[in-house]
Amino acid sequence: MKNNGINSNYDLKPGDFNTRIRPAWCRGCGNFAIWDALKKAFVSLKLKSHDIIIVYGIGCSGNGTNYIKTNAFHALHGRALPVATGVKLANHKLEVIAMVGDGDGIGIGGNHFIHTCRRNINITCILHDNRVYGLTTGQTSPTSDEGFQTKSTPHGVLEEPINPLMLALAAGATFIARGFSGDVVQLKGIIEKAIRHRGFSFVDVLQPCVTFNRQNTYYSYIKLIYKLEEEKKYDDRDFSAAMERARETERLATGVLYDTEKSIYEDGLKQIERKPLVDHVIKDIDINKLLKRYT
Ligand code: SF4
Questions:
Q1: Whose CA is nearest to atom 2 of ligand 1?
Q2: Ligand 1 lining (C-beta closer than 6 Å)
Q3: Could you tell me the distance, in angstroms and rounded to a whole number, from the CA of residue 27 to the centre of ligand 1?
Q4: HSE-up of 27 (CA within 13 Å, CB side)?
Q5: Residue with CA closest to ligand 1 atom 5
Q6: What is the pLDDT along the chain (295 residues), one digit of tens a residue?
Q7: Residue 24 Cα: closest atom of ligand 1
Q8: What are the structural domains of the chain?
Q9: Pairing mode, if any, of strands 201-206 and 95-101?
Q10: What are phi and psi of 58, to 5 degrees?
């Protein structure tokens, strides 16, 4: 598990993670299911609010900053992963989760995504993949289907979409899964496993945007998806098998596609071997002298 200190002396309920602010997402938005699954996963893992920090990117998903009672940081557009990386290095005892959208995490933050995968730092990234820019009222995103008509592409998208699962596999992520907002029970289980995994975990959630994407709907996904956990022979340690399932388009696998062990980035850092950076005493360091070197 990412945070070795996970333990609780009292039983929390998902509602204990609610803030006083009610979500302003559109009625039926897939964000609700992710919000619900995440809180349920925290309860199963016996995580407490102060054990966790969620770093949000910009987008409808980013508004979650106000809706879950944990430490939180609302990063610049596309920058949730580098901020999450910095937080993890400053205090690797914290459970660090990055919540990104497809435009935010795969478009504007695409470069950060690739490097976080290959770095295998011990954080979890949850992609709210609604295949459209929802917050800015419906423009094409990097995961939008070819031919999808939006106000930014009135004649249809010309490019093929990025496949986040294939990208994560190719870039070296060690835990890769796909969930669906229409199945909170499965999604909660996936998120739980992702948080337990030691290394970079990536969960791509098929999340219908009921307002600006009338193409990728709950109904259209229900017709396409199937569960990997129902296949007895599927081996999630097999990279080639994972790549094969990730590239399917006629049907969409949900569940854990890939799960492997590899040393994590933090293992190589002598500075945090004994304790987190935040616990180091710096009172003997003359900060002014240090600052002068950079001015
Ligand atoms: Fe959800 Fe789309 Fe509404 Fe944003 S615009 S809250 S993604 S349904």
A1: 209
A2: 25-26, 29, 31, 60, 130, 134, 209-212
A3: 8
A4: 0
A5: 134
A6: 554 344 445 689 999 999 999 999 999 999 999 999 999 999 999 999 999 999 999 999 999 999 999 999 999 999 999 999 999 999 999 999 999 999 999 999 999 999 999 999 999 999 999 999 999 999 999 999 999 999 999 999 999 999 999 999 999 999 999 999 999 999 999 999 999 999 999 999 999 999 999 999 999 999 999 999 999 999 999 999 999 999 999 999 999 999 999 999 999 999 999 999 999 887 777 888 888 888 7
A7: 6
A8: 25-294 (3.40.50.970)
A9: unpaired
A10: -95, 140
